Amino acid sequence: MRPSIFLHVKKGLICTAMLSALALSGCQLTGDNQAPTTPATPEQISAEASRYQSIIDSAQGKPSIEVLRAYISQEPLLTEQAAHQANIDGIWQMLTQMTPDQVQGIGAEENTLAGWVDLLDIYLNNRDDPDTLRAGIEDWKIRYPNNPAVQTPPNQLIQSMLPPVGKSPKIALFLPMSGQGKVFGEAIMQGFIDAQKGLPQASTSQVATESTPEQSKSDDVLEQIYAEVAATTGNSPATNDVEVVNSSLSIATVPTNTQAVKVFDTTGKQISQLLQQAQSEGFNLVVGPLLKTDVQTIAQTSSPLSILALNELDADKLQPRPNLCYFSLSPEDEAKNAAAHMIADGKQVPLILVPSNDFGERVAKAFAEEWQSKGGSTVLKQSFGSIPSLKESINRGVGINMTGTPVIVNTTGIDKSVNEQNYPAISQPQPEVTSSGAIDAVYIVATQDELTLLKPMIEMAISTKQRPALYASSRSNQAGSGADYRFEMDGVKFSDIPLLAGANNNLRKQAQQKLNNDYSLFRLYALGIDAWSLANNYDQLQQNSQFHLQGASGTLSVKENCVVYRDLPWLQFSKGQVNLAK
């Protein structure tokens, strides 16, 4: 018999350190395993966990009984929830890849490993019958009550026990349909229902018109919703459409059917009660809710319903769940998209200009983290104030120099927050520095009015030979931009959703009619269209990391924790027109 890695550990050390988790660790406080009187230190526990991790890493994913034992020995040392779940999922993934011969030679003392192998056998024999699988696992829990999978099952195993949503799900649409959020809920619902009935075909002409929202002038409550869904408010129809020339963008066709869809108003309601009601009425998929606070609530429930939330949570609150996916219009995701696009353009030394508030800080951090994750250097940031203060600077002849403060990023992960009021401070104020290399690109997160002032301020402070490339977010692409503005913005690149970038002119015209010319709601309408498509492909979202969809709100793909990511097309002002950027 091959000796267990677990037996090579100082068992007394582990048992004492993890006394509260004896049921999970499998340690026995008898004989040679009597616990020492001195508890293990956190440093010793961390060192042991790291030693096992090195064994796991050195295997490079190749399954073996030795690595499986390393996983099992590491498990009781992990107290952080995400790391513990990753360990459990790693055990299960390795088990499912091993042959019967590879799991031979289990020692009589290896009760935990024996329990895992028995669980695998139940899974392999019943995975095509969820009801029988659930019954078998309940019996297994009685026989192996101390196995860590009793309290923390592998996500793949949970997924196997859930009934599939199927190609014709019965959908409960959770949206704010009254109160301050009504206008947003109705726009999403309209896109969702229009997609169910069938989208109009794209026009044969290669010229489409572009109209986009006007900046919000509303109160703080609606501004909070803006921060959450990256849309603006107001009711201002466009006065001049921008031509998008030679658009080759497309939006994928969506499934059409008459399956049941019911809208549940989330305003002032308890999410847990709405979930119970939806379940009792026979719905098997929830699309929504929209507001972040409601998404936080729904992520903490134990409802068996599958859920496609229409907002995201902070990265530290995202946990893998086999029946929960996230889809939103995240400003942070747009900033990451911009960083990736600028690197693809060959840019090396960026400066980011953002509003002087929490929203701007958060977007700057997301941009910098994506930039550095792709091998880029430190990102510099400048913040700008109100429009009156920008005008005052111009009147005094003050431009925007290519300097800034370094954006301090979190090297352990990206904080995805789409709620300004929950944003934590990134760092202490940093002194302004000049880049060691010439700034070759500026990413501007600004409204149209702000961009109109910021661009000349940049040009005022630099020479023609040193002029960097300018990139802008969709925040600046608003309704009513006439020819003068397009000429003034010559050379600026900006991102926006395919629906507003010439992908389907007939669909854009339909949306214009359905939304009563309120261009501020176009992006939410597109969100509703894509939510319908994702709902009808829900089973693939959790199981297929290669999932891609040409949506109305962007090119959609699935990332970690079943977060749907949007890749946006890029446009460019050129000689009074708008072209797809090369």
Would you mind describing this structure in some detail?
This protein is α/β, with parallel strands linked by helices and 582 residues long. 40% of the residues lie in helices and 13% in strands. An eleven-stranded mixed β-sheet has the order 2-3-19-18-14-13-12-8-9-10-11. The protein has an eight-stranded mixed β-sheet with strand order 4-1-5-6-7-17-16-15, sandwiched between helices. Helix 4 packs antiparallel against helix 5 and helix 15 (331-344) packs parallel to helix 16. The chain is globular. The N and C termini lie far apart (63 Å).
Q: Termini, distance in Å?
A: 63 Å
Strand order in space, largest sheet: 2-3-19-18-14-13-12-8-9-10-11
- Counting helices, strands and paired strands, the structural category is alpha/beta
The helix tally amounts to 22
Descriptive terms for the model:
582 residues, alpha/beta, 8-stranded mixed β-sheet, disordered N terminus
Structure, briefly:
The protein is 40% helix and 13% strand. The protein has 582 residues and is α/β, with parallel strands linked by helices.
